[in-house]
Amino acid sequence: MKRAAIVLALAASLLLASVALAQSGGGYDLHWNTVDGGGYTFHAGGDYALGGTAGQPDAGLLSGGGYILGGGFWCGGTAAQYRIYLPLVLRNHMVYFEGPWESEDNDSCTAANGPLRSGRDYLGYPNDVKDYFSVHLRTAGSITVDLTNHTGQGVQLQLFYQSVDNRVAYALHPPYHIEYTGLAGLYYVYIYTASGYNNANPYTLRVAY
């Protein structure tokens, strides 16, 4: 008799617990639940990884409306997967000057148009004394600079490495052509025009590297 009373009391406590855990409201209804075993999804050490759980009687997918619940540590079936992407950091990413027209004011190395793309034609008017452009070599190698259709007078084409205090090549007479082999880093292309300025006939600058 005493054992039967204990069993009845235990059953009543479980029933009361299930009633207490049942919740509903706001369009949602949690009218039943189970008490399941837990576990640890993965534990790694050395060359081994262990994934396991201690019982999971309701593993699987439950769906209703627009919602899907994957129960258990090892969910059966296939649920929709969502990925969150962190901001992407690009290593050695280069933002090139696309042109094709020069952008004033580029009358100093600090305001140089660049870095220029290799093999692209850039256009500019010989309407002032100085035009600066920049080129960035990722690795050591050769640079070829060509200036064509420049209608000004006293024109000079110069190439600097890292700063305007370090001139490495120049061309003082047409055709204005420079070939130089140098270290990786930043180069400046400088176009000097002494006179004959105009806004009618653009020059063409091309750098290959």
Question: What is this entry, summarized?
Answer:
By secondary structure, this protein is mainly beta. Helix content is 10%, strand content 39%. The strands form 5 sheets. A 4-stranded antiparallel sheet has the order 7-14-9-12, with no helix packed on it. A 4-stranded antiparallel sheet has the order 8-13-10-11, with no helix packed on it.
**Tally of helical runs:** 1
Q: What is the CA–CA distance across the termini?
A: 98 Å
Helix/strand order: HEEEEEEEEEEEEEE
Strand content: 35-45%
pLDDT averaged over residues: 81
Percent of residues in helical segments? under 10%
Anisotropy-based shape? elongated
Flag low-confidence runs: 14-21
The appropriate CATH architecture of the domain at 109-208 is: Sandwich
State Rg: 37 Å
Give the CATH class of the domain at 109-208. Mainly Beta
Task: Give the helix/strand class.
Answer: mainly beta
CATH topology of the domain at 109-208: Jelly Rolls
Task: Give the strand tally.
Answer: 14
Quick tags:
mainly beta; four-stranded antiparallel sheet; Jelly Rolls; 209 residues
Explain what this protein looks like in three dimensions.
The protein has one helix at 2-21; strands at residues 23-25, 28-30, 39-45, 48-53, 60-64, 67-71, 121-124, 130-137, 141-148, 156-161, 167-171, 176-182, 185-192, 203-208. With 209 residues, it is mainly beta. Among the domains are: 56-88, no CATH class; 109-208, Sandwich (Jelly Rolls). Strands 7-14-9-12 form a 4-stranded antiparallel beta sheet, with no helix packed on it. A hairpin with a 5-residue loop joins strand 10 and strand 11. The radius of gyration is 37 Å and the shape is elongated. The chain starts with a helix and ends with a strand.
